[in-house]
Amino acid sequence: MTYASLAEAVDGFKQDADRTRTFSNGGPTDTYTTVDGTQVPSVQKFLADKDAEINVAANGILAQATTQAGIATTEAGNAADSANSASTYATTASTSATNASDSAAAAATSASNAAATLAGAAKSADLANNRDTAKGAALIGSAIPQSSSGITLPSSFDVLIKSAPINLLRALPGGYVADGSVDYSSYVQRVYDYLRDFGGGEVIVPHNMSILVGNLVTYQNIHTRGYDPSAVLLVKPGSYGISLNPGSGGSSDPSTNARNVRFSGFTLQGQVATAGFSEQVHLLNLNAFSYLEMEDLIIAGFQGDGVYCGSSNVAATERHNLRFSATRVLFNGVNNQNRNGISFIDIDGALVDDCEFQNCTRYNMPGAIDMEPNGDAWGIIRNVTIRKRKFLNNGGNVGEVSVLVPATVTSAPKNVTMEDCTSYNYVGTGSVFSFVANRQPTSTSEDASFSVIRVTGKTGYQPYSIMGAKRGRIQGCDFTDYTQSAIMGYTTAVQGVRDIESECNRLTRVGSVQGTGLRVGYADYFRSTRDKLIDCGTGTAGLSNGIDFISGLSSYVSFDGLEVSAPTGKTLVAIQKEAAHAFSANTNRLMAANLNSLASNFQAEESDLYVSAYLPVVVGASTAGAGTYTVQNGRYYRISKRVFFKVRLSVAAGHTGTGLIQVSLPLPAAAVGGDNIVTLGATTVNGLSVSGGCTARLNSAATANGVQGAARIYYGATGSYAQATIPATAFEVEFSGEYTTT
């Protein structure tokens, strides 16, 4: 196929990738003939013919681009001169090879040599198939004045290869101002649209300038970057800054998401200080993406969110986001009159690393980082890691890092991690870490698998709040000076927790207003290991608890190595139990605790500290019967499956039982041998007619008072022990022993 002119040929090449590759990747000796007989060299031949000049120019430009971002204005001016020279060469190439050489030499030796085009092309030209080339082969045919987006192009370097950088200075009109006072949104948008048409590229935000923009739209494979914070995009009040798939853009199928979008090295500045709060006005409005990265940014003064990772901007519209990362980004809300630093409405795979959040969030908005689907069944929050981050002077009513998933969302939040973070001077009414899943955790429900690791907090409202979560851990954290207690499960079953581990955490002066360091509500399989609570509470009776079990039910609660202390008298009770809380004491454990002589109302059958009470009874081996007791004391404790107990009974005359005296046990007995009998210990009796010393023997096959196993009383007789039977008169029995429970 032939064309009437080079311009027509170029248009054809742009629509035909095979022909474009043929022209761009032609050999170093290839030439092409147009319909009017003009000989046009391939890009390779042009570069080969002028290799020395191009190398000198490109090397100089690349050095300047990496070391002197501030020369962008001069480069842009010289770029136009260079482009005109190159155009002259292109139009006279058919009549004079010498003129072509002179024109190329002029382009190569100009001060900037079309820096915004050639330098970028030399770095990352794709030649329409994503393959890097050694030199920026971006010259195709004669001048094309405009792309389909309407942006004016250089007259010679007219078709920019995918990924070639464009400095925004090239898009601004003559006589532009750099102080953010004139709206250049339409000019800047042409650059994004232009790069969209050519498959992607780089938008360069110029150094030492403030460009006023609003409601910009970026696309996949586009990298917006600057070289330092003096490169500023100032966002108009009431406008999104930069959007990806705004409105209902994108689709519900993540395979069609916009991919490979980057932001780096510049400042995106909102105007909350003068325009005030506006909940839905976000600086970065991002929807339906895969592989989105931001680094070395300043995101400041947002009216709504600094970064919004949404499920579109239209209600009940399904969109999903995959693989987000933010590294070394400063989120500065300026005056705590915004929504969130980052909102994750839908996310699967996110890393927020080495960032800082300061002065974020209005008093009635969630917090610095909020993971909160809109309530649609398809919402996803999973695989999010927040690490090495600093939070300073933030507010809100949910948390610095919060997960809040409505019950209407099908999938529970999963694999959310906060580690190696610090929170200072929190001024809101939420937690450092809040996880609320709004679903009752059971043995078969989905694991949340959250982690809070090595988080330090100083001065705030609440250390953490965990509700509706199954499986998670809080480890190595240190919280000091918080007015409200930490919460582990709350007062309804859907706010309960299950399979949560707390290890080596320290709460100091927590609950200084509310009165408790840690409140526990509905909780199953909560395990605390080597946790410390120091001076938690107010020092006033009723408001001075290290740990308080509030309204709810709990089972399998374990404390190992717990330490509760009150160096200044703020804590009066180490572990409190409210009347509305029900323990399953037979499943609980308290071992190696140091409560520093503070009172405790915890109930744990397995304990080396607690001695539990029970009411032993006497029954007959033949007829159980019943009796009246003037003394009825039983005490026991358990370590693992070993039970240690002591009994003292005074039985009034007239017990109705018959046969061998049997005394009930505190816990069921395991089988102890072939005859199921083992001696417990010596027994003191009174009121029995016996001829020798007495002993108590465990019979695990017997049953007394509904408990498997019983202690039977024997006395010494000639050559053997004889059974002591229930007398008609009053009698006393006292003994102690140990045995293995089931």
Sum up the structure in keywords.
9 helices; 58 strands; 14-stranded parallel sheet; Pectate Lyase C-like; mainly beta; 742 residues; 18-stranded parallel sheet
Question: What does this protein look like?
Answer:
This protein has 742 residues and is mainly β. Helix content is 14%, strand content 38%. Among the domains are: 6-160, no CATH class; 171-335, Pectate Lyase C-like, CATH 2.160.20; 612-740. β54 and β55 (694-704) form a beta hairpin. The radius of gyration is 39 Å and the shape is elongated.
Write the layout of secondary structure elements.
Elements: H1 6-15, H2 17-24, E1 31-33, E2 39-41, H3 43-49, H4 51-67, H5 72-92, H6 97-109, H7 115-124, E3 165-167, E4 179-183, H8 185-197, E5 201-204, E6 209-213, E7 216-218, E8 222-225, E9 231-235, E10 242-244, E11 258-264, E12 267-269, H9 272-275, E13 284-287, E14 289-295, E15 298-300, E16 307-310, E17 322-327, E18 330-332, E19 342-344, E20 347-353, E21 356-358, E22 369-371, E23 381-387, E24 390-392, E25 399-404, E26 414-419, E27 422-424, E28 431-436, E29 450-453, E30 456-460, E31 462-467, E32 469-475, E33 478-482, E34 486-488, E35 497-503, E36 506-510, E37 516-520, E38 523-529, E39 532-534, E40 545-549, E41 552-555, E42 558-560, E43 563-565, E44 573-577, E45 581-582, E46 589-591, E47 599-600, E48 606-607, E49 612-614, E50 618-620, E51 629-639, E52 642-651, E53 661-664, E54 677-686, E55 694-704, E56 707-717, E57 720-723, E58 731-740
Parallel strand pairs: 3-5, 4-6, 5-8, 6-9, 7-10, 8-11, 9-12, 10-13, 11-14, 12-15, 13-16, 14-17, 15-18, 16-19, 17-20, 18-21, 19-22, 20-23, 21-24, 22-25, 23-26, 24-27, 25-28, 26-29, 27-30, 28-31, 29-32, 30-33, 31-34, 32-35, 33-36, 34-37, 35-38, 36-39, 37-40, 38-41, 38-42, 39-43, 40-44, 41-45, ...
Antiparallel strand pairs: 1-2, 49-51, 50-53, 51-52, 52-58, 53-56, 54-55, 54-58, 55-56, 56-57
Helix pairs in contact: 1-2, 4-6, 4-7, 5-6
